[in-house]
Amino acid sequence: MKTIVDTIAATRDITLEQLQTVLSATDTAAVDYLYARALETCRSVYGNAVFMRGLIEVSNHCKNDCLYCGIRRSHASVHRYRLSEEQVLECCATGYRLGFRTFVLQGGEDGWFSDTVLCHMVQAIRNAYPDCAITLSLGERSRESYRQLFEAGANRYLLRHETANAAHYASLHPAEMSFDNRMRCLQDLKEIGYQVGCGFMVGSPGQTVETLFEDLQFIRRFEPQMVGIGPFIPASGTPFENEKAGSVETTLRLLAIIRLLHPRVLLPATTALGTLHPRGRERGILAGANVVMPNLSPKDHRKDYALYDNKLCTGDEAAECRVCLDRRIRTTGSQLVVDRGDFRE
Ligand code: 5AD
Ligand code: FES
Fold this sequence. Notes:
Strand order of the largest sheet: 2-3-4-5-6-7
Largest sheet: 6 strands, parallel
Shape: globular
Strand content: 5-15%
Distance between the termini: 31 Å
CATH architecture: Alpha-Beta Barrel
Radius of gyration: 19 Å
Helix content: 40-55%
Order of helices and strands: HHHEEHEHEHEHHEHEHHHEHHE
Number of domains: 1
Bound molecules: 5'-deoxyadenosine, FE2/S2 (inorganic) cluster
CATH class: Alpha Beta
């Protein structure tokens, strides 16, 4: 196994057989070696800095009906909300005071957020915080829409590909959503000039070592600046509510592998990972992750943005999360920094 880890690190490539071996390994010393190599690789590029992104959940209205998602359209008991531009700017102001230099506007696919509404919002943030990065995570839109938002001042876009296998994609999404359109969006975003993040859930229903291998090949080919992965967590009221959650261990191994395949990638230790294990985010950092994305959304709406059950920090103030994370990250020997945290070319 150690030889395999060294080979992956040296070639920045992995075979299906090697992936199978790493994911099924039971030798804890060997798995620790994988994490150590990934951490060392991360630190050789970014030092011991961990970048923070302030997540602002702008709307939980969504026209889509993804089978896994707690805010899917047909989940009738969700209390729907959307934030005004003024509320979003207040979140940014709080975030800026706390040292955030990246704001992530995330939301469901909500038709109310037209290009006009969003461009106005992005411009307002851009004018107020010229030194900050603006990241959007608002799902599938037209190329023209992505272009206008980029012109308005957005720098980055997160759109998880969810799975690189078309049949698996079809089993996670309703018939009106298409794998090809997802790929078209990612391509458009890249061509327009965004720093792009793709990603997937670990342990989503129907996922296999083979589909994971396709995910890793897609990441190698697409060369995203960011990759967001976290365990699948069943959300009550969805078709997948009785499915098994993804594994923390598998998520950590995949984080480490992605770091070795793509040393400069920005890799979050996700809230989902922190939800399934009390030290999940810290363990993510020790396996090669270098980003955390605490919540800056207004406290009274957080519980309504429940993509999955038991999500972390829904009752905490942004300032509390900042202090908590600072302390947690320091236990790993890394350090939260006040920095945009751009991709290092
Ligand atoms: N468990 C874990 N992650 C989820 N997401 C959506 N629903 C769940 C869930 N039940 C992830 C998807 C989406 C991102 C915003 O959140 O990958 O792209
Ligand atoms: Fe909207 Fe899943 S239903 S992202």
